Each structure stands twice: as C-alpha cells, then as structure tokens.
Amino acid sequence: DHEGVAMQLNIIVDDYSMNLNLPEEFLKSSAESFERLDASMRDGIQMGREWVQQPDRQQRCQIAAGKLLTALETDNESLAMLSAGYIVSRMPDVRRVRIDNTGEPGGTRFE
What is the pLDDT of residues 6-17, one digit of tens each? Predict the structure, then answer.
C-alpha cells in the first residue's frame, strides 16, 4: 500500500534549485488534466521560434517545463504542480528538470 507516497522532482533554473513534492494522490486525481494537456498539444505546438506539427513526448514535456517556469515566477502553485505532475506522469523515470531560461524550450533537459 503506497498511500501517501510522493514523487520528488528537482527543478533547476540557472543557479536556482528546488524540490517539488508530487503526492501520488495528486497525480492520480490529475490524470484527466494531463489528458487535456496532451489533447491541446496534439495538433502542434510552438517551441521557441519553431512550430512543431507532431510533438513527441519529450517536446510536450519541454513545453510543460516552460509552463512550470512561468508558474514558479508568478507563484502559481497549482499550475506548477500540474506542469510538474504532467512531466513525471509522462516521463516516470525523470528526477530532475533543467529548465532552459532563454526562451528555447528545446534546451530543457530531463535527467
């Protein structure tokens, strides 16, 4: 029984580093929101200056990481949790996200 288990995601932006705890319950209850995010990106996404017609899983997560950065900068905790949750739900092995801060989502790395 994994009641109360939380995933931890380490987020790095330049010299800034923080850990975000994502309770398993939150991830389960947010599955529908993650589906909606996928649906919204299905027809293509803007990645920096490029339009990507059929974004793969990594590109989708890079876009989510960009939303995560915006959420952290604006203290939008619910968006931060949702964006981070999306990343760990789509890339379960990821423990760390190095978010590109130059407006090039393709520079974001997952570890």
Answer: 889 999 999 999
